[in-house]
TrEMBL record:
The chain crosses the membrane at residues 22-44, 64-84, 113-138, 158-188. It comes from Vasconcelosia minhoensis LEGE 07310. It comes from the Bacteria. The lineage of its organism: Bacteria, Bacillati, Cyanobacteriota, Cyanophyceae, Nodosilineales. This is DUF3611 family protein. Keywords: Membrane, Transmembrane, Transmembrane helix. PANTHER family: PROTEIN TIC 21, CHLOROPLASTIC (PTHR34548).
Amino acid sequence: MTGELGYSLPPAIRRIAGAFRIVGWISFWIQAVLGVISSLVLLFSVATLSGRATQGETNPGTSAGLLFAVLGVLAVFAGAFWSFRYTRLSRKLRTSNPDLRPKPKDAIRAIQIGLMISLAGMLVTLLGAEAIVGSLLAKSLAQPQGSALFNPGNVTQFIQPLDIFIVQANTHTLVAHFAAIASALWLYRSVNRQ
């Protein structure tokens, strides 16, 4: 099969380049979309929580959870950038000059770095989830059981929609990291397939 410039690539390189291109773009868009959604939700949450903090209503578990969640979202954007690099690696693999093509160890190294970014991001996102869910558990246990007693002076003792919104953003971030890890493992399989 002849390529764009009239040269022929070995089938294995053509297959690997195609995998890097397709998987790179899919991973990039999944991470970009979920990262933007999570970012917007977390920005809204941080703005709302900072307004509550000025009124004396704070929840330390949610604050720590938000910090880890924001770090996880930053890692999603780093992972999306790395997935975009997979598409650039695909272009380099399709070059006509074999001396300019990346070596298999370079492709594997790129995959390993992508995996490390996503695993680190998933770790901090899971730490954020633990803090957020622990905070929500404490709130649910503090709520009066049986008859509803409402104390208007202490609204933060109740689980609010914003709390669930933060859990939703964190879940989006985890899905983005999972997609990046699955993509990297798929690419690793493609590179090592005979």
